[in-house]
Write a structure and sequence with these properties.
The complex is a heterodimer. By secondary structure, chain A is mostly helical. Chain A has helices spanning 3-19, 21-43, 74-109, 111-126, 129-140, 144-171, 174-181, 186-222, 234-243, 250-277, 279-287. In chain B, helix 7 (144-158) crosses helix 8 (174-208), helix 7 (144-158) crosses helix 10 and helix 8 crosses helix 10. By secondary structure, chain B is mostly helical. The mean pLDDT of chain B is 84. The N and C termini of chain B lie close together (10 Å). The chains are: A mainly alpha, B mainly alpha.
């Protein structure tokens, strides 16, 4: 493929992505939330564990999201919780994408390893996701790193299956046969010809793992198995809010609203990407 | 078909053994002395010796695993450390609560999701379609605990229609028991109705574009007959697999929903056992739940194969 052709294809793809309102809207919401989570706490006069003068204060100009039962500022805790959720969601996605790609490519290319690897993946998928994550955390300890490992392990099989399926279809293509006939080493075929073709489904799956990761982390922290207080997480803020929902509904609505907006934005992007990267639509763009 | 079902059941056996091995060994990943986490650092040597004997901790790993597995196959999952009863007894006590919750949630998911998906597909690209799909996306983006807390705030704290939480056995007081299950079932069901709606819409759209539907219309069949007698029957086949998936998700979601509404079900049992490090209960409940989900998956696969004759049994 010449450089001009590659540039044209990229431009067509970029235009297709920007034409998807879901991707643009979801991306914008996510960027705004991420920027607020990154920059917001720097400008806040409160630190997340600082006990201010009054507890269970309703939202006001001084405490935008009110204060909790210890008098801590819910706004700064929510932003730091958002930062934690995004970091864990992203790390889970990277972890499961890398592991899932390695397993899926190996199973798809080397038939002898297929049965064993996919058998292991099936076994992991037999466990309800949250149950397995809870058991891993119970065994390994409830730290941030272990939450990432637990969720990454839980979501790896789905990614591995998708990569394997794409690899199986790519390996039968004539250009792979030609590359083999030319005597190219297997790793070069893998990196130059197979990997770029499994990239599109991997990206789409990645957005869904990101959304699941954020939701699962919040769920685990809500029930007390994930991120441990006093480290703020949107899930553990809501877990604290449950007992005092009558007195302090703001502790539920603000952090809850952030989780909802964040996951909705990621799902909007995922749906948009799926539509854009769908092979049928891709054929349509190339033909145009 | 019977041969196919038998083969699938046989294939489950090695998988179940690996699942049981993972379930049993996962608790041995715990760094440090498990007795310290169970009895505390200041436990007397006598108490430690008693615990070692009762948990067979002095046996080799494979012996312990075999004892546990053979016990499990006879319904004996060991003794809980903190509950003062056997794990099997604890599971039997908690299971009905989770079953009621799961069945109720599945009914809500189907009653809301199926008509929404069908309507959306029939009115493709209309305002109704857009609204249903936007609501479905919102449903999939809402965590169970958030929806549960919002429902508690509106319907329990605000309007006082339902109690905040708790459980009354249906055998003790049917009406009060059902009243307490409404919000938890709705919380779990409404979220997964979103998934059912999306899948039903996609399946229905696929079917509506097929040749036989075009033929049915061309030969002058009434639109109602085309949709209800020809399209829907085929479109619902892939939805059965989604229902299997939803059952799995409901099992996961039940952990959180039971905590939100203080329901004494399996989820509550597992979460409390994880927090207290009651390992026999965690292991036993994990094996029980995973066995259940494997069997549900098998049933759904068999149902799918039965409903769609195109599926090759070989």
């Amino acid at each position: 493929m010449t450089k001009k052709n590659t540039d044209d294809t990229r431009r067509i793809w970029l235009r297709a992505i920007l034409r998807q309102r879901g991707i643009v809207l979801g991306g914008t919401i996510l960027v705004v939330i991420a920027l607020a989570a990154l920059i917001g706490p720097v400008f806040s006069p409160y630190s997340p564990n600082e006990l201010t003068s009054g507890f269970l204060q309703a939202p006001s100009k001084v405490h935008w999201f009110g204060t909790d039962n210890f008098g801590r500022d819910v706004f700064v805790r929510s932003l730091l919780g958002t930062r934690m959720s995004l970091a864990i969601g992203l790390a889970t996605t990277i972890f499961s994408s890398i592991l899932g790609t390695v397993i899926g490519l190996t199973a798809g290319l080397f038939r002898r390893s297929d049965y064993l690897l996919m058998g292991v993946m099936d076994v992991i998928m037999a466990f309800p996701a949250l149950l397995l994550a809870m058991a891993v955390l119970a065994a390994m300890g409830r730290t941030v790193a272990n939450v990432i490992v637990a969720l990454g392990l839980v979501y790896t099989p789905r990614t591995a299956r998708i990569v394997r399926a794409s690899t199986l279809s790519v390996r039968e293509e004539t250009y792979i046969e030609a590359a083999r006939a030319l005597g190219l080493p297997w790793w070069r075929i893998l990196l130059r010809h197979v990997l770029p073709n499994v990239f599109a489904p991997l990206i789409v799956q990645g957005t869904f793992v990101f959304a699941y990761g954020v939701l699962a982390e919040a769920g685990l922290s809500f029930i007390g198995v994930g991120i441990q207080p006093p480290t703020p997480s949107l899930g553990n803020i809501l877990g604290d809010a449950r007992a005092i929902i009558r007195e302090a509904p703001w502790m539920t609505f603000f952090p809850g609203g952030i989780i909802f907006a964040m996951v909705m934005a990621i799902n909007l992007m995922g749906d948009g990407l799926r539509e854009t990267l769908d092979p049928r639509l891709r054929r349509m763009f190339k033909g145009g | 078909m019977i041969q196919y079902a038998f083969r699938r059941l046989l294939a489950l056996v090695p998988m179940w053994i690996v699942v049981s091995l993972i379930t049993f060994s996962i608790m041995y990943l715990i760094p440090g002395d498990p007795l310290v986490s169970i009895l505390g650092p200041s436990a007397s040597p006598e108490a430690r010796a008693r615990m070692i004997k009762s948990m067979h901790l002095d046996d080799p790993f494979w012996v312990r695993y075999w004892k546990w597995l053979s016990g499990a196959m006879h319904g004996d999952l060991g003794e809980s450390i903190f509950l003062g009863r056997s794990v099997s007894q604890a599971i039997v006590e908690r299971l009905p609560v989770t079953l009621y919750l799961g069945i109720g949630a599945l009914i809500v998911a189907l009653v809301l999701g199926l008509p929404a998906g069908i309507t959306s597909a029939l009115k493709r690209n209309s305002a109704i379609d857009t609204a249903v799909m936007a609501l479905a996306l919102a449903g999939l983006s809402t965590p169970e605990f958030l929806l549960g807390l919002v429902l508690i705030y509106v319907f329990a704290v605000g309007l006082g229609w339902f109690p905040v939480g708790g459980y009354v056995p249906l055998t003790q007081n049917l009406l009060e028991g059902l009243r307490r299950l409404v919000m938890p079932c709705f919380t779990l069901g409404v979220i997964w109705a979103a998934l059912v709606a999306r899948m039903t819409r996609a399946a229905m759209l696929d079917v509506l574009e097929t040749d036989y539907i075009r033929t049915a219309r061309a030969k002058g069949l009434a639109e109602r007959s085309v949709i209800w007698r020809h399209a829907l029957r085929v479109a619902l086949i892939p939805v059965t697999t989604v229902i299997g998936f939803v059952v799995l998700l409901i099992v996961s979601g039940a952990f959180i929903t039971e905590i939100v509404f203080s329901l004494p079900g399996m989820g509550n049992l597992v979460v409390n056992s994880v927090l207290k490090r009651d390992y026999p209960v965690v292991q036993g409940a994990m094996l029980f739940i995973t066995t259940g989900t494997l069997l549900i998956n098998l049933l759904i696969d068999l149902l799918y194969a039965y409903l769609d004759p195109r599926i090759k049994y070989d």
